[in-house]
Amino acid sequence: MERPEQGPGEPDSHPRANGCSLTGYGALRNGYVRGLPEAETQIHHIAHNGGLYRRPFNEDFEETPMLVAVLTYVGYGVLTLFGYLRDFLRQWKIEKCHHASEREEQKDFVPLYQDFENFYTRNLYMRIRDSWNRPICSVPGAKMDMMERLSHDYNWTFTYTGRVIKDVINMGSYNYLGFAQNAGICKEAAAKVLTQYGAGVCSTRQEMGNLDKHEELEKLVARFLGVEAAMTYGMGFSTNSMNIPALVGKGCLILSDELNHASLVLGARLSGATIRIFKHNNMQSLEKLLRDAIVHGQPRTRRPWKKILILVEGIYSMEGSIVRLPEVIALKKKYKSYLYLDEAHSIGALGLTGRGVVEYFGLNPEDVDVMMGTFTKSFGAAGGYIGGKKDLIDYLRTYSHSAVYAMSLSPPVVEQILTSMKCIMGEDGTTFGKECVQQLAENTRYFRRQLKKMGFIIYGNEDSPVVPLLLYMPAKVGAFGREMLKRNIGVVVVGFPATPIIESRARFCVSAAHTKEILDTVS
Amino acid sequence: MAAAVGMGQQWVLVEMVQAFYEAPAYHLILEGILILWIIRLLFSKTYKLQERSDLTPKEKEELIEEWQPEALVPPVSKDHPALNYSIVSGPPSHKIIVNGKECINFASFNFLGLLDNERVKNAAQASLRKYGVGTCGPRGFYGTFDVHLELEDRLAKFMRTEESIIYSYGFATIASAIPAYSKRGDIVFVDEAACFAIQKGLQASRSNIKLFKHNDTADLEQLLKEQEIEDQKNPRKACVTRRFILVEGLYMNTGDICPLPELIKLKYKYKVRIFLEESLSFGVLGEHGRGVTEHFGINVDDIDLISANMENSLASIGGFCCGRSFVIDHQRLSGQGYCFSASLPPLLAAAAIEALNIMEENPDIFQILREKCKRIHKALQRIPGLIVVGDLFSPALHLQLEEPSGSRENDMKLLKRIVDYCMNRSIALTPARYLEKEEKCLPPPR
């Protein structure tokens, strides 16, 4: 095994035993979590570089117990058999066919969907469909009102009874700092701007859509992140899918994490660069890929790569893990590549003042070449941004697909971002923002501790407000969603294909708006 | 000899040995050499065609040291025309303040003038009071609000289709809808003047793309015939390749309408599905603003998918697709921009609903819009040196230089001067922006 790289000026790490390494910074134990005595705690990756972390980085992903894995496979097997049986019955018209079908005039066209593509949808997804797409009719705050939905034909169609289930505890919305409110300074400011500017913009950024509000917002975002300049876009998803192609093209290499979000994957594909995937949060895998790439060059021509771009996320939304940023930055500096950090979930949620994962690790924001994030999660608005050096932003202003062809942000949304960001930075004169950030951190730790005490398998880092709770079996997925709703708690359950097939989970998003009582009720 | 005689007889071991002793010497020596050669070949090392030298670690380190990447972004010159945006203060409605100057706005897509409408703003305010600004979640995870469901319902009723689905961004609508249906190996026939969002959707879908000349049904039919011949060679493959025609109602790049009735005929003749992109024509064409299907009087069920964005006539943000449930329901699980992105902020959805209400109550605004378009079109025809690109009743027109100088940069500079001149006389225009390297068929400067 190669000797891992040292950060600049760090003391030599002492010989490791069991992944514990003590360095001169005072007992920093990395990656070793004392789990519950009965559970098998296995560490996915041990941080060799003790000196780069100034605080303990406790992340663990417990292995699936063998019995549970086997039972899960059996469960899926049974469901698949039933699926085939029902398809057979439907084909022979013994069972009624509920789903929509092709027009009479177009019956001899090539079928629009392959039968097998929709097998999963028809047979497995339909049974538990009522756990998703639940409509709500209030602010998505700590508590919300849900519209009651009933199904008389096993989830094929839904009818709304018209009743509203009030005060459902919301553990599913990405409302980390609690800014999803319909009262307060943010709302007042947004209302004023709405009266003044209207709701839409009707033009692209480069043509007539650049309002003075946009310029103000970009300056504020740059100040918030600690970078030279920033640029904002109308939608978080399209920020990634339209700017990665502007930055890299053919002849470049993209190294992307296994579990990156669909927008990053789409942006990487649209750019035309070669994509290589490294194991999730695994620095050795990343280093090996970097070395091989530089030494061997492009696959067939052996020419050197033009650029290498590493795509990582701040917090991974399905795993709850935090990227090992100090190591990634050390690697990036050593191998002269560029780093693209997607802070969709971590901006506002991590760090002492909510500046994101860079502040959480105490690093310099100028080390990250492209800092991207969204305003949907912590700021209670919509849209995305990219921050970085002035050259980068100038280039994006000219060549980004979004600036040329897509609409700019709507004015009241811009105002909401401005007010909430100022609040978090403390510029509006109150400490409300700082309190929110601290409240979130406390809530996270408390909630995770409670769940661990109850013996559930929780993935992810201890400081991440995204808490996945493993359920494994497909039947539990549906049952969990329904039972929690009966107790007036709204949770999010996720299964295949967003997660690996045996690792279905329920995901809790802790928010600063949750009080201790709410968290206790949930546990 | 015994060896020759033994042809028809049964070989006996004794006779074999006898034959061996009695064989001529040269025969034996030859056979011996052959056997030795075979043994040597069997045991010798495999022959490598090229010497593969594995690099020593030291050489690897040197390579890593030497490698210099390009700069992350190439530098942009300070006076690049697209770098400095004009700053608009105040609402981008009919009178717009650009860079401090008040002008009449001919540059926004605010076709029906609903951006400034009091009713729309009040509806958005009410929604803001109820829901706040953001939705904090995708549609699948508590991001579905009753306003979204209501808007989907209203749009479906307005367009007289079974179902509709809303996206939170106009660009992402068509760019997510296409890859949901058309996968690798499928064939899409696209007009040359398709807008950038369509091009990105096609790129993401990895299908075979066949371009046909703008609004030229003869060219399209030619391509379809060629495809039919191909199909006959390989019928099994043809049974599973899906085929689509993708056109826009009113083209953004040229301002003219697609010949929809002929396309419908081609659809049934060659069995291809039609996807219609109505961003500019929704709320503009047709008696009640239902778009190009109403304009031509075609049954909307004949079109498989209509996609539009709400950012032009409806003065909101976002987009929608409508069609039969059979087609639209698929996008709820496989439209990337729908499943993986936060939903539309409710105040924008409420603004869109109110705008729809206004459109339904006053169907004569479409007539007024058409009159105005005709007047402007006639007036602009009289300007020497500039051709008007666009149909008589298209609200989005391009002014192109009659005699291009051949260099795109010079043309762009001249156009910029024209735009500045107009701004000085209080008329706001804008040069059409394109990404020169990315567009498949770059339109001339305008």
TrEMBL record, chain A:
Composition-biased stretches, type Basic and acidic residues, lie in 1-15
Per the entry, which co-factors are needed? pyridoxal 5'-phosphate
Task: Please cite one Gene Ontology biological process associated with this protein.
Answer: sphinganine biosynthetic process
Keyword Transmembrane helix listed? The answer is yes
| PROSITE patterns, A to Z | AA_TRANSFER_CLASS_2
Q: Which InterPro entries match?
A: Aminotrans_II_pyridoxalP_BS (IPR001917), Aminotransferase_I/II_large (IPR004839), AON_synthase_class-II (IPR050087), PyrdxlP-dep_Trfase (IPR015424), PyrdxlP-dep_Trfase_major (IPR015421), PyrdxlP-dep_Trfase_small (IPR015422)
EC number, UniProt record: 2.3.1.50
- GO CC, any one term: endoplasmic reticulum membrane
Alphabetized UniProt keyword annotations: Acyltransferase, Endoplasmic reticulum, Lipid metabolism, Membrane, Pyridoxal phosphate, Sphingolipid metabolism, Transferase, Transmembrane, Transmembrane helix
Q: Which SUPFAM superfamilies match?
A: PLP-dependent transferases
Coiled-coil regions listed in the entry: none
| All copies of domain Aminotransferase class I/classII large, residue ranges | 166-520
Pathway, per UniProt? Sphingolipid metabolism; Lipid metabolism; sphingolipid metabolism
Intracellular or extracellular location(s): Endoplasmic reticulum membrane
Q: What membrane topology is given?
A: Single-pass membrane protein
The organism sits in which domain of life? Eukaryota
Quick one: where's region Disordered?
1-20
**PANTHER family in the cross-refs:** CLASS II AMINOTRANSFERASE/8-AMINO-7-OXONONANOATE SYNTHASE (PTHR13693), SERINE PALMITOYLTRANSFERASE 2 (PTHR13693:SF79)
Can you say what this protein is called?
A: serine C-palmitoyltransferase
TrEMBL record, chain B:
Gene Ontology cellular-component annotations: endoplasmic reticulum; membrane; serine palmitoyltransferase complex
Q: Where is the Aminotransferase class I/classII large domain?
A: 102-434
Instruction: Give the protein's cofactors.
Output: pyridoxal 5'-phosphate
The molecular function terms of the Gene Ontology recorded here are: pyridoxal phosphate binding; serine C-palmitoyltransferase activity
Q: Which reaction does it catalyse?
A: L-serine + hexadecanoyl-CoA + H(+) = 3-oxosphinganine + CO2 + CoA; dodecanoyl-CoA + L-serine + H(+) = 3-oxotetradecasphinganine + CO2 + CoA; tetradecanoyl-CoA + L-serine + H(+) = 3-oxohexadecasphinganine + CO2 + CoA; octadecanoyl-CoA + L-serine + H(+) = 3-oxoeicosasphinganine + CO2 + CoA
Q: Which domain of life is it from?
A: Eukaryota
UniProt-listed Enzyme Commission number(s): 2.3.1.50
Keywords, sorted A to Z: Acyltransferase, Lipid metabolism, Pyridoxal phosphate, Sphingolipid metabolism, Transferase
Q: Name one Pfam family in it.
A: Aminotran_1_2
Pathway, according to UniProt? Lipid metabolism; sphingolipid metabolism; Sphingolipid metabolism
Extract the SUPFAM superfamilies matched here. Answer: PLP-dependent transferases
What processes does the entry annotate via GO biological process terms?
Answer: ceramide biosynthetic process; positive regulation of lipophagy; sphingosine biosynthetic process
Function of the molecule:
Component of the serine palmitoyltransferase multisubunit enzyme (SPT) that catalyzes the initial and rate-limiting step in sphingolipid biosynthesis by condensing L-serine and activated acyl-CoA (most commonly palmitoyl-CoA) to form long-chain bases. The SPT complex is also composed of SPTLC2 or SPTLC3 and SPTSSA or SPTSSB. Within this complex, the heterodimer with SPTLC2 or SPTLC3 forms the catalytic core. The composition of the serine palmitoyltransferase (SPT) complex determines the substrate preference.
| Record family assignment | Belongs to the class-II pyridoxal-phosphate-dependent aminotransferase family.
> What is the name listed in the Swiss-Prot or TrEMBL entry for this protein?
Serine palmitoyltransferase 1
What species was this sequence derived from?
Chelonoidis abingdonii
